[in-house]
Write a structure and sequence with these properties.
Elements (H helix, E strand, L loop, with lengths): L7 H12 L3 H13 L3 H25 L6 H9 L3 H36 L6 H18 L1 H29 L17 H10 L9 H5 L6 H30 L2 H6 L4 H5 L1 H40 L10 E2 L2 E2 L1 H15 L2 H25 L1 H4 L3 H25 L1 H33 L1
Antiparallel strand pairs: 1-2
Helix pairs in contact: 1-7, 1-10, 2-3, 2-8, 3-8, 3-10, 3-15, 3-17, 4-5, 4-15, 5-6, 5-13, 5-14, 5-15, 5-18, 6-13, 6-14, 7-10, 7-13, 8-17, 13-14, 15-17, 15-18, 17-18
């Protein structure tokens, strides 16, 4: 069967949809708590790192087009060994963490909508557990339905967020909280940097373009454009959303509604109606992101098993789907219900900063094959490393448990790979004997 080719607009929408999934809805309040009036700058800092990294992804995608995406790039750059296997394990775990973040955002926005529109309340954990179970069932029943839902959701959420920005900018100058954007309300440079890194997960997603690369028309032109245009668009969108939120809602109110602050930010402009519209948009966005990420996470798990980076047991199928789909869903349920928002966001940001640093380094090593400018990929590598260190230092000072969780997850990915490779080698020796 002939593969359907997609054009530039569709490939850009993959990158935008991957980034504007549930991240911005989940972490905006956390960003304001950490960066205060400098929140727009924090998003710019995180965006710059994402943009540098998109260069490495663009070059690697052109010369190693594969639905395996990041897994393929890491293996090409470092070979199939404990380091690359551990990194790819971390990618799968990071998918699970992102799923937990999206699920948490769904639960928070759903609970706030029920509270404002009804006469009763519901715990967000009930809602997030329900949505994970439903999304898992939907993936088992029909991934085609998941794909259609995601395509629909991308255009809906972008359209509504653009309307939010347009209305917000129009009335912002008359808002009594506009002074919060003044320089006096900014935090210091280190806090701006570390604050931007805690919410770096909001930029995770552009790498999904790599998975679609084999189907993109005129790849030599459209692959780089897809990465650069999508990242630049999302940087602008996030900065404007942060600008409007900080200038519209008091810091105290943002702290109270940290997990659903974007809905609260729409109230000064549109009242309760705005809260409901943004709340529903958040539910659509996070639901679609959960659906796609569960499938994506299970595919990464399956590819790792095929590449002998985790046990071959994960190549098994259950109800005509990789068993990794069920494992991914169960682990998401555990993390989403056990850990708080900041710890989840920190772990996700730390994981992807390390993965992006390694991808930048892989492109630096392969510059002769990819025709890359080494200074760009090396700068991306250094920025990711500095950002990861700043994130960890900040979290050790303010959220020790979150820092420990993040480092434990990273360390575990490589330890598991080490013991797997060791046991696999021992098994081969016994077989030969």
């Amino acid at each position: 069967m002939k593969k359907v080719k997609i054009g530039l607009l569709s490939s850009i929408s993959i990158g935008i949809g991957g980034m504007v999934g549930g991240g911005i809805f989940a972490v905006l309040g956390l960003a304001v708590e950490l960066a205060r009036g400098g929140t727009p700058i924090a998003f710019i800092i995180a965006g710059i790192i994402a943009f540098f990294t998109s260069y490495s992804y663009a070059r690697l995608t052109l010369f190693y087009p594969s639905s395996g995406g990041t897994v393929k790039f890491v293996n090409e750059g470092f070979g199939k060994n404990i380091f690359s296997g551990g990194t790819n394990n971390l990618l799968w775990i990071s998918y699970i963490i992102m799923l937990s973040l999206y699920s948490s955002a769904f639960g928070a926005y759903g609970a706030s909508l029920i509270k404002i529109t009804g006469n009763f309340t519901i715990d967000k954990h009930i809602l997030l557990t329900t949505i994970i179970v439903l999304s898992t069932l939907l993936n088992y029943i029909s991934f085609k339905a998941v794909s259609i839902a995601e395509s629909f959701a991308v255009y809906i959420k972008i359209f509504i967020l653009i309307i939010f920005v347009a209305i917000g900018l129009w009335g912002l100058g008359h808002n009594p909280n506009f002074h919060q954007l003044e320089f006096d309300n900014w935090v210091g440079p280190f806090k701006l940097l570390s604050g931007g890194m805690v919410i770096f997960v909001a930029y995770e997603g552009f790498e999904l373009i790599a998975n679609a690369a084999p189907n993109i028309k005129n790849p030599s032109k459209n692959v780089p454009r897809s990465y650069y245009y999508s990242v630049l668009f999302v940087i602008l969108l996030y900065v404007l959303i942060a600008f409007i939120t900080v200038g519209s809602v008091s810091f105290d109110k943002i702290a109270q509604a940290q997990e659903y602050v974007l809905a609260v930010a729409s109230e000064p402009m549109l009242g309760k109606t705005g809260f409901v519209i943004i709340g529903i948009t958040a539910l659509i966005s996070t639901f679609s992101a959960i659906n796609v990420s569960i499938y994506g996470g299970s595919r990464v798990n399956y590819e790792l098993a095929k590449d002998d980076e985790i046990s071959h047991e994960f190549t098994a199928f259950l109800w005509n789907k990789p068993i990794g789909l069920l494992v991914t869903a169960v682990l998401t349920l555990i993390i989403a219900n056990l850990f708080n928002l900041e710890s989840i966001s920190t772990s996700g940001s730390a994981g992807f900063l390390l993965i992006f640093a390694i991808v930048n380094l892989a492109n630096f090593k392969l510059y002769r094959q990819t025709g890359s400018l080494t200074w760009i990929s090396f700068t991306g590598f250094i920025l990711c490393v500095i950002a990861l260190l700043a994130l960890m230092i900040q979290q050790f000072q303010t959220n020790l448990s979150g820092a420990i969780i993040g480092l434990t997850i990273i360390f575990s990915a490589y330890v598991i790979e080490f013991f797997f490779k060791k046991s696999e080698k021992g098994g081969k020796i016994l077989t030969q004997l």
